[in-house]
Design brief:
By secondary structure, this protein is α+β, with helices and mostly antiparallel strands. The chain has 5 domains: 1-19 and 263-281, no CATH class; 24-130 and 222-262, D-Maltodextrin-Binding Protein, domain 2 (3-Layer(aba) Sandwich); 133-220, 3-Layer(aba) Sandwich (D-Maltodextrin-Binding Protein, domain 2), CATH 3.40.190; 299-430, PAS domain (Beta-Lactamase, 2-Layer Sandwich); 441-597, Reverse transcriptase/Diguanylate cyclase domain (Alpha-Beta Plaits, 2-Layer Sandwich), CATH 3.30.70. Strand 20 and strand 21 form a beta hairpin. The N and C termini lie far apart (89 Å).
Length: 599
Amino acid sequence: MVMRKVLFCLLVGILTFGSTKMVMAHDRNLSLSKKEQAYIQQKKVLKVAVLKDWTPLCGIDEKNKTNRGLVIDILNQFGEKTGFEIVYVESENYLDAIEKTQKGQTDLMATMVSYNQMPTTYPQLEMTNPYLISQTAVIYEKTTDLWALHDKSAAKVKGYPEFSNEEMLLYMVFDTPGDCLAAVRSGQADIMFCDIFTATMHLHEYANRDLVSVPVNTNTYFSIGISQKESPVLKDLLNRCIEGLTREEISRSLIYNRIQHGYDFDDFVYHYLYEILCVFVAVIFLILLIAISHIRIKSRNNLAIQGYAKSYNLLADTFGEAGLDYDYMEDTMRTFGQYAQKLSISNVTENFSSYLEEENKEISMTKEQFQDILIKGTEGKSYETELECKLKTGQWRHFRLIFSVITTNASYKRPIRLLGCLIDIEKEYQERKELIYMGMHDKLTGLLNRSAAEEQIKARMISGKNISQDMVMIVDVDLFKNFNDIYGHDCGDDVLKFIGKAIRKAFRKEDILCRWGGDEYMLYLPDAGEDIQAIQKMCQGLQEAAKKYEFEKKSIPITLSIGGALMGQRDFKMTFKKADAALYDVKENGRDQFQFLLD
């Protein structure tokens, strides 16, 4: 423990010495309109409510007695780009900062929190776009049964939104994240939810092996709160400044503001004089110390991986699903859990990346998709994706993969493990597919409805393909009103169904077939102009099939009038009008014919 403190303090000193400059870039200026310049000249000063103990987002540098943190860096940069003077007003707690901004005592509140972009509603407050998105973690003692949440108490920062509205959780309110963690350590509360950066900072400070931090499938969003008394111009300026931030700038600021610069060097020399002499005099001892530290870091990383593995094992066993464990260095995928025995994929698949390139693989994921998952997963967010897996019965089913990609400092933030759980969503997928189908198709005829047909035609128009030989065709049932008047509306509906089925049978798979409205059908035929005779035969076949219609075992021939026009250099709307004109000519000339305008 002493040696670890020696190394940590030396690192603190080096980083403190080399970190005296602003960690965020200032080379991208905001382009200000006259309205924005006038607002800045009138406002001049922005008062910001901040918290003094919310490292690394905002806090107090005890040595220099200045405000510091990620949001402080962002606001300082905002002030330099716009000309605002930024004045920081310390608040007692999160709720106090909210209330100051609501009452107009401050213009901004630096650290407004929401979960999964669910809006956090406070009267008289607006929110900017998030400047930081963090995975959420749950912190609890190892002896706590995380899965039995009945009668559990959750520590929550005063004013924070509730992580969950589950009635089984009893929320206990505290002023700061540090107070919440102390409540969990003392047994006053069972669990607490917080962003991954706050969890890392406080667990490192306590160095308590009895506490466990596990990520959950929820993100924490940090935004800047704005008093509604302020002009919308301020929100727009802040959002533009936030959008201009790069991931590297945010990462540098977070890392810089994690270092505790308040450590007193004189106290360090007084307490660790012997260790300092050993470090500087004995080079061999320094090498040994670094090696021991490296081994300890690897051990902690292994413990973290084991924690992830146990969580996903528990998740797979509890819900009867299948788990996945991918070792990046070995390129080996392992499956576990009750459902894994039903999967066709082997329990251990070596050379998994090469396996994903095989044609007869038992999983729908490609090698490129898998590599994309590993890369995105290193951003510290929670991810899920959908895929298909083959069962031993030969059936393919749809699954949702919920996963975490694990990286460490030792791996230079490259992925080393992927741990996840496959959840069977076949029923959900089929229901979703059915809803999509119902939304695109006419209920009576089974053909596309007008809206879906227009979307497909639009996609054809913008595809870059040659559409000059495409044809728009209108099919109309002659004297359709007679079917309803003479035989009843059941007969009329049956006629429409019959013609819809006949159209599907007569025309090609790639044709866009639609019930346009009433007894009128619209057909969009790609490349029809390349073989007009074939299209004429299709129309003849459709008209012949219509004449064979029977209702209640009584023959009632149907005649169809058909008009069509080639697209040429026209758009769809004009071509539809020409097809409609051709249809009108057919009706004027006695019906039961077809006519195409090919110019």
